[in-house]
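Section 4.2 – Deliverable D4.2 (structural model, holo form)

The reporting period included a commitment to supply a predicted holo structure for the target in complex with adenosine-5'-diphosphate. Inputs used:
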Amino acid sequence: MKKRVVIKVGSHVLSEHGALCDERMDALCGLIAELMGVYDVILVSSAAISAGQSKIDLKRDSVVHKQILAAVGQPHLMATYEKKMSVYGKKTAQLLLNAADFDSKHRSTHAKNLVFGLLELGILPIINENDATATAEIVYGDNDRLSADAALCFDADMLVMLSDIDGYYDSNPSENKNAKIRPVVNTLSEAEIASAGGAGSEHGTGGIATKLMAASMLLAEGKKMFLASGFDLSAVRSFLLDGKQNGGTIFEN
Ligand code: ADP
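Output (structure tokens):
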């Protein structure tokens, strides 16, 4: 049986100047197509808001504006994935979920049947938060929490987070130029997560704290999380395809 990975990509990686970044989406889709030969791959993709910004002129200055931008942008985001994955002969499918879907056994069983069915057919499931009824990830998290829920619910062996940062540092690298990357993290205390600070970039909303929360959820279930750069995919490629760690942070027990 193939190993299963959930890959979560942050909005900062997928977008640039209020639109989708074609070059980085090309690179990501190329890697996913390659990975699909070896792994069952489930993608959790942000960036519906940026995709929406390229379609309508609306500021992302309130929750409802973000919902509108995401609602307009989501089909554009999916159309972009569909087009880019078709180059590799791969089909895509959309799942809009929210935290409540994972809390309910009944609902998660339906979602599981769907995802497992898609994987069997070699179709790439692409998950995003359903922002119409749940805005938790829009406000806080940028799909970090959702991707951890998905990794656990869909029995993934590992969650791979592709971020604007290339790993977890011993202090905030945007404030401390001597910060050093931590290649391996075995445990995360609540105090460490709490001290990790607030939102990171302008487009991402979670910062490192929500990534550590996701890692902690996976560690508690004996699973792994790999955090690496989504701008330069060489670390994630060598980790997943060659079994070599040339960058990034692996969270494992
Ligand atoms: P994404 O948009 O990729 O989901 P975010 O921008 O939300 O990611 O979060 C990553 C950001 O968190 C980094 O760019 C960095 O500025 C910030 N950060 C704060 N502390 C740390 C740390 N200890 N290690 C790594 N990044 C950190």
